[in-house]
Every structure is written in structure tokens, then in C-alpha cells.
Specification:
The complex is a heterodimer of chains A (262) and B (238). Chain A is mostly helical. Chain A contains nine helices and two strands. Chain A folds into two domains: 150 residues, no CATH class; 69 residues. In chain B, 74% of the residues lie in helices and 0% in strands. In chain B, helix 1 packs across helix 5, helix 3 packs antiparallel against helix 4 and helix 5 packs antiparallel against helix 6. Chain B is globular, with a radius of gyration of 18 Å. The two termini of chain B are 33 Å apart. The chains are: A mainly alpha (262), B mainly alpha (238).
Amino acid sequence: MFSNTLDNYAHSNKYNDLNTYFKVLFGILTMLMSLISTSPVVPLIIALFMSVLIIFGAKVSYKFYLKFFFFPFSFGLITFIFMAIFFGVGVHILEFGIFNLAVTADGFNLGLLVFARMLGGFACLAFLALTTPMTELFSVLRLIKIPQIVLEIAMLMYRYIFVFLDEAINMYHTQETRLGYSSLKKSFKSMGMLGSNLFIRTWMKGEQAYIAMESRCYDGSIRTVKKQGSIKTIGTRNLVLLVLFELVLIMGVYFTGSFRIF
Amino acid sequence: MHIYEGFLPWQWCVFWYALAIPVVVYGIIRIKKVTDEHPESKPILAVSGAFMFVLSSLKLPSVTGSCSHPTGNGLGAVLFGPAVVSALCVIVLLFQALLLGHGGLTTLGANTFSMGIIGPLAAWLIYKGWQKVEGSQEAGGFILVGIFFAAFFADLLTYVTTAIQLSLAFPIPTFESAMLKFMGIYAVTQLPLAIAEGILTVVIFDYIMKLRPDVLDKLGVLELVKKVGKIEEPKETV
């Protein structure tokens, strides 16, 4: 119910020391390649490649990764089946014999494409989420000129998410041990109490945080020490590798563009 | 219901980004104005965003047994107004993508449009409209009806927008028939969830009103409560 292990991995994986900008560029560019592809081949290769990188390169536990991947995978599969049956107007390639339902060629192709694109995109997202801590992503956001006020709110928010998640988990378990979720009506009551108490607590925390900040000379902006490393320190070798990889992908997208199973 | 990474073709990703960005920029300008005038509101906005995130990671007790989570945008819109919520929502959605794997980066624009703009706007309009209704300020419980419908429609319109987004992206054979299919699925799975979120929001709001009406007063949500005469001295909270 409450999973924040994603963040734990982001701070303790083997790619942690790699240049942040390099990781982000790699993840986003590959994600875009997967997005613009018109055939399922390239996205599936990307999904496989990213998964191998995450499990064998970044040494994220494969059990955790598979569990993390399971939900988008099953959702994608359902979409695939749904599209194959309901989103075609072309040739029937498989008749069910009931309700005049049939898998059509164009529906199947579209479903497969969406399914592949979801896997490819999600693997890239997982790569970013599992290898790059949020705190380092903020420096990337600063580079692309996201307003200071948004960054400050985002940073504070990031810090408080975990505080409140802890409190929510505590409250939830406390309510559960007192049979707070034994029936539907009680569930709503307990959940409502949890939510409202959480809101009041968040409010108090916010006020206290302001008092604490003000007593330490808060003048409306939060200054942080930047981590070493910039876009210039990616290194020629990594940069060449990155460009080559993306070029291969673009060529893949171009040459497999008209590939269809049916 | 987030649209997953890679679900939309790239043309539609760009399109929804283009629609969402002006609203979000307006929200950011509003936030900047508020925080420049009242610096103490910055941490409060941040913890409110964190609250929205945590709320959306709670599992909703649902009638159909399907597991889903409250969006929290109805409550947020009633408390903070739609423009501020849309800006907060982008950050929350970004965190959801990167910390929980819900949603995605390329579909961030589309998700922001449905969850951060249409949903909160609907909630806010309904809530403001309800305040004008004759008699809505008389009985204490009557306010909660407005809250219920605000949260209910915020949820519902979020799903309708998502269905429209999906059928625009996949208009096969026509937009209408695709719309009918997506709406068919959503009506079965999401309508109970919208009702559940409505009820939950009412319960949450009711508790806040009982325990800390001064907070709501500060936010300016409840001139109502004063007239009803329900405001008491703030009690100690647990």
C-alpha cells in the first residue's frame, strides 16, 4: 500500500555516482525514441535493454523490479487485448464465434504497438526513478529554468512526503489493529479520520516549519549547496556512446517503421 | 486513473502539454504573488502538496472491490482554489511518476490537464455555485452536500476527460464509437470510485470542520461556517 522503496534504490544503486545529466539525458532521449516509434520492435528492444541495465547494471533486486514492472505490464496486456478485439475494422484473423467478436489485423497491430510503447516508456521511467535520486533531479530542473518558487515548493514537498507517509502508515496500522477497517462503513469513517487528521497535522507542520525557518533568517528563498558535476563533466566517451546509441535507435525506428506481424 | 507512459502517440503528448502549460504558468504566477505577499504560505503550500500526494497513495475502500486511490483534487480545489491546485498538481504528478511509477513523463501534460485542471475547476465551480444556492447556508449538514458533489464531479469529470483524451488519440473507427467504448469501461469501474471519493471527502471535510475550523477560516473557504455559528474555540488535536 505504501511503497517508498523506489526512493531507497534511487539513493543506493550502482549508478549513483554516474553524472546525473548523463543519466537524465539517456533516460529522456530513449523514452522519446520509444515514443516516436511506429513499430513495436524498437520499444520492445528498449524495454529489454533498460531492464537489463537496471537489474545487472544498477543491481536493483530483480524481485523488486519485476513486482514494480508487473502492474504496467498487466495493464498494458489488458489494453492490448481490448484494442485487438474492439479497435479494428480490417480483416478478421481470429473469430471467437460468439457475439460476433473477432480479433482484427489492424486492431492487433495497434494494440501491440501501444503495449510495446508502454513497456519501453515505462522501462525508461523506471531507469530514471531507480537510478537518480530526486534531490539530483532538482538540479536538472534548475538547469532547464524551472522557476525558483516551484523548485522550493517541490523540495519542501519532497521532504514532507516521507514525513506524512510515515504518519499515515502509523495511523493506518493503529486504526487497523482497532478493527477500523472491518466493514465498509467503518473503513470510510477511519479513512476520513485519517485524512482529516493528516490535513490538520500537515497544516500545523507547515506553520511550525515557517516559524523554524524564520528564526533562522528565512528571507523568502532557500539556498542549497549544489552537488558537484555539471553538464560539461559528462565526458567525451559517455557522450559519444550516448549519441551512438540514440542514432542506432533512430535508425531502428526508421527501418522497422513499417514492420507488422499481420 | 493516470494515463501510462507511452500510451499516447507523441502528437497528442505535445498537444496536451500545450494546453496544460498556460494554465500551470498562471497557477505559478498566482503562487508567486501569494508567497511574495505572505512568505509564511510557502511551507504551507508545500505541505499541502505533500498531503495531496499521501492522500492519493491511500487505498480507497471501494464497493466493487477494484483497488484505486482518491485523486484528492476535489478537496484541494475547495481548499486552495483551482489555479494553485493545478500548479501543485504538476509537482505531485511528477513525484507520483518518479516515486511510485504512476503515470509518466511524456503523458504528464495529458494527466495534468485531466487531474490538475478540469477536475479541480469542476469542483471549485460546483462548490462556489452551491454557496449561492438558497438555503445552503442554513443547516450545517447542507454544506457537506455541496462538498460531496464537488468531489464527485471532480472525480467524474477527470475520468470523462481521460476518456476523451484516449478516444481522441485512438479514434477507431470513429471518435464517437471509441468514446462509447472507453466510457463504457469507465462507467463500470470508476463511477463507484467517484461516489466513494465523494463520501470520503465529505467525512474528511466534516472532521476538519469540527476539529480545526480556524484553519478553514484562514483559507477563506468557509465564510459559511461562521454564519451557521458552528465556529468554536479550536480544540486540541491528537
